[in-house]
Amino acid sequence: MHTHIKNSNLEKRRTRIRGLFIGLTLLLCRPLWATPNLDMREIPSKHSLHELVLQLDQQGVTEKQKVAAVNTFFNHMPRALDKTVWGQKDYWATPDELLRQRRGDCEDVAIAKYFTLRKLGIADSHLRLAYGKIADLQRGTIEPHMVLIYIPSNGSPLVLGSLNGHLLKVSERQDLILEYTFNVQSLWRWRADSSILLGKAEVLAPWRKLLKRL
User: In which domain, by residue range, is 25 found?
Assistant: First the structure.
């Protein structure tokens, strides 16, 4: 009898400890701008994005906080190949298309971050979509990859990646090989010191087709 009571009390303590640990974990991971109406663990949807934009589009939220929040939000999007989602080898989805399908690849996620941050008032000159390659040192592979680059007024460019969710400087991403960057208007060849303007971004066929669907 005493053994049963001891085991019961022990199990209750373990349950309380597990609950406390989970609660602290969620509290520490939860963005400061999040509210109970916005569960960041859920797959992003058009409704939850609208809630996020409303929360961030208010006085007192810094540009860096907007960047961090949008990066975290879209990094919860499940990954899927274009062939699986669209039946095409390469398809760049608009943010609405991505949220409707609720899955996409690295291009779709980077593009959604770009247009969301533009909607939140961040200047186009501070944002560039970046195409290149990412290296998996453990597997010894190099694959095509797209990320979003945020260029603050004062400071080094930061990478908004979907495989590495941390906001790191470009120089800190040794696994990332950037080749080209672009926005709505222009296309550049990437250089760590100064980019080289190549021309208009409309030469990128998938990008040109996407802009027509917006």
Answer: 1-30
